[in-house]
Amino acid sequence: MNVINTEKAPGAIGPYSQAFEVNGCIYTSGQIPVNPADGSVPEGIAAQAEQSCKNVGAILEAAGSGFGKVFKTTCFLADMGDFAAFNEVYAKYFTSKPARSCVAVKTLPKGVLCEIEAIAVK
């Protein structure tokens, strides 16, 4: 097992790693829309989905993988009313259409609107 860590994505805000590589697969922790440069969170679901995708991408890149190698994602939304707007952004990044679960949750860390985790091959 190898820990994956990059400063191009937000650091963990709890006792976990950004990702692990296990047997050629990359398992990312959920990525919320925190800008790693300054810790800010953009306004609105579209901007937040964009930042979450960028954070996932930075971790995948650090692990020697990429969006085209993702085969499963789990997405969390604070409001299922944001589903269509979230999907519009998500589709720009996850063009291979990996298997996915998308659920609404009561709250997310830092009060954000979305979170994305991914599993990919290296």
TrEMBL record:
One of its GO terms (molecular function) is deaminase activity. Coiled coil: none annotated. InterPro entries: RidA, RutC-like_sf, YjgF/YER057c/UK114. It comes from the Bacteria. CDD domains: YjgF_YER057c_UK114_family (cd00448). Gene3D superfamilies: RutC-like. SUPFAM superfamilies: YjgF-like (SSF55298). GO terms for cellular component: cytosol. Signal peptide: none annotated. Belongs to the RutC family. This is RidA family protein. It comes from Candidatus Enterocloster excrementipullorum. The lineage of its organism: Bacteria, Bacillati, Bacillota, Clostridia, Lachnospirales.
